[in-house]
Protein 1
Amino acid sequence: MTAIRRQSAASNVSLERRAWNIRRKALLMGEVQGQGYIGQALGVADVLAAAFFHVLEYRAEDPEWEGRDRFLLSIGHYAIALYAALMEAGILPEDELETYGMDDSRMPMSGMASYTPGMEITGGSLGHGLGIAVGMALGLKRKNNPAFVFNLMSDGELGEGSTWEAVMSGVQYKLDNLVCLVDFNDQQADGKTTAALARGREEDKWAAFGWHTQRVDGNDLKAVVAAFEAACKSDHPGPRVIIFDTTMCKGIKFLEEREITHFVRVEADEWAKALTVLEEEKPQ
Ligand SMILES: Cc1ncc(C[n+]2csc(CCOP(=O)(O)OP(=O)(O)O)c2C)c(N)n1
Ligand SMILES: [Mg+2]
C-alpha cells in the first residue's frame, strides 16, 4: 500500500501554511460573490491540506493522468473549498479566483466535473459520491492501477440510504484502495446532524460493516496526517474511513462564535474583516 505521497516532499511549505492558504483563497472567493459555503470550507481546510500536500499523488500539469489518486467531492456545495485546494496545488490557476461563481467561470458554485480540472465527479445530489467511489476503486483494481480513491462526504450524507449500500459494496469487493473521508461538522441543512436521526456512534457502524475506521479531530493537522497514514498503510483487507470532527468557520473566531447554520451568513463588510483576522494567524 502506498498512497502517502511523495511529490510534496520536495516542497518546504508547511502543511499549516497550506491550510492557511486554502482558507485565505476560500475567503477571497466568498468575497467575490458576497456568499459561499465558507463555514464548510474553513472547517475542512486542514483535511484538504493534508490530502493534497501529504497524501495524494497527482500531476498538477496533467490533472487526468491515469496514475493519479482520485479525490471525489461528493458534496457539491463544498466546491469553494476544493477550488481553493486545487488552486493551492497548481491544478487551477490562481488568476481565475475572481471568476468564482460567475457565468462562464470554470468554478461554478456547485462542483461540476465537466467544468473544472481536478473535479472528478459532479457531486451535490447527496449520497451518491461513495457509490461512485466504490465503482471507481473497483475499476482501478481490475485494471491493476495502484491509485487510491478518496471520497470526501459530509455527515448529512450519513442519513442517505445509498451511502450504506455503498458501505456494504466496498466491503464485498475488498476495496483496500478506497478511503472515505467524512466531514463531521455536526451540521446539516435543518440543524445539528446528531439531532436529526437516531445515530449512535458513527465509528461503530462503519467498523461493524468491516471498514478500517478512525475518528479524529479534523482541525488538528498532526492527527489528520496520522489518520491518513494509518488508513493508507494499513493492511486491512477492505475499505477505510476517517471521520473528521471539524468546527465550521475554523480559524475565524468571530465567525466560529456566530450562530452556526448550514449557510453561515457573512455580511458584506465582514469578508475583509475575516481576511484581516486570518492574516494575524499566518503560519510560517
Ligand atoms: C439528495 C439531496 N437531498 C437534499 C439536498 C439539499 N441539501 C444541500 S446541502 C444539504 C445539507 C446536507 O448535510 P451536510 O452536507 O452535512 O451539510 P453542511 O455540513 O454543509 O451544513 C442538503 C440537505 C441535496 N443536495 N441532495
Ligand atoms: Mg455537515
Protein 2
Amino acid sequence: MFRPSWIEIDRAAIAHNIIEIKKRIPQALMAVVKANAYGHGAVEVANIALANGATMLGVALLEEAIELRDAGITAPILVMEAQFPEYAGVAAEHDVTLSVFSADWLREAKAYVTERPLTVHVKVDTGMGRLGLRTRAELDALLDAADDRFDVEGVYTHFATADEPDSPLYYEQQKRFSQLIDGLIPRFRYIHTSNSAGAIRMAGEDVPYNLVRVGIALYGLYPSSEMASSYAFLKPAFTLKSRLMQVKTLEAGQTVSYGATYTTTADEWIGTVPVGYADGWIRKASGFEVDVAGVRCPIVGRVCMDRFMIRLPHEFPVGTVVTLIGGPVAIDELATHLGTINYEVVCQLTSRLPRRYV
Ligand SMILES: Cc1ncc(COP(=O)(O)O)c(C=O)c1O
C-alpha cells in the first residue's frame, strides 16, 4: 500500500458492541454485514460477530452472501433484498437463505431448485412500503405454494420509524405484524422484526420473536440522535486517517482549489490532504473541520477528486497524521455537515481507501 490514507477498523470495538448488545437482548442476533459491513469489511466483521455471539448474518445481495461463503463462513446467511427466481438454485447450492414475498415467486423458482432445498424467510410489509406481502391471504397462498423444495424457515418485517421514540407507526407496524402471523408462530423457526433501534427498544420486553437484525449498532454508531442515550455503551469502530502531503504558506489574497472559492486573508499555512471525492469524501465536505495533532483545521476551497486543502494555525511537518473521521471528529458531526446520516457516510467511502484492522 503506497497511499498515505486509510480506514482503521477497531476489531475490539466491534466485539465489545456485540457482547454488550447480547447482554441486553435474549433473542438470537443476526449481524447485518451488507454493503461490505457498512464499509467496515464484510468478512472481517462477520468473523468477529460470529466469534462474539452472533449466530446468523444478514446481507442485501446474493453476491455478498457468496463472498462470505467463499471466505469459509458456514453460519446461516439471509439475503434481505429480493432476488429473481432464476437465482434460487444458486442460493440453494451455497446454502444461502432468500427473502420471498409471493406464491408466484415460489412457483417460478421451483424449476431452478433441483439439487437441494432452498431455505426462505417470508418478508411482510407492515408499513415500510417497500418489499413484502401485505395480507394474510398472500401469506397463506405462499405457504400453500411451498413444497418440499423449500424450507420456509422464517417470517419477518422491517420498521420504518423504530429510531423515532414518539412515532405511532412503530406500534402500528408491530400490531399489523402480530395480526398477520396470528396462530402461525409455531410454524416458523425464526420470527423477527427489529433492527438496531428496535432491538434496543425491545430490550427487557417479553416478545414472542426470537431473532433481531442488528446493523449500525455493531459498528458502534447510533441509529438516530434521539436514541443516543440508550446507546451510550457503544464504541465506534471506524476511523479515517491520512497524512499531510504538502505544507506551504500562501500570502494574503491567494485562492485555493477549483472555482477559487476561498481567498486567504493573511499569510496562511495551507496543508494538502490526499483524500478526495473519488474516495467518497464528497465536495459537500468543504467547510468541515478535520483534526491535525489535536487541532481542528477547516477545509478550505472545494474538495478535489483526490485531495483537499486545510488551513493550519502554524506549520506542521509533512507526514503529520490528519484524522478525518473518528476520535475527536465524530462521524455524526460529519453526517450533520453533509446533511445525511452516519449510515450513508460509512457506506459512501470507497474501496480505494484501504481498510486496516487494529
Ligand atoms: C431489512 C433490514 N433489517 C435490518 C437492517 C439493519 O438496520 P440497522 O443498521 O438500523 O440495525 C437493515 C438495514 O438497512 C435492513 O434493511
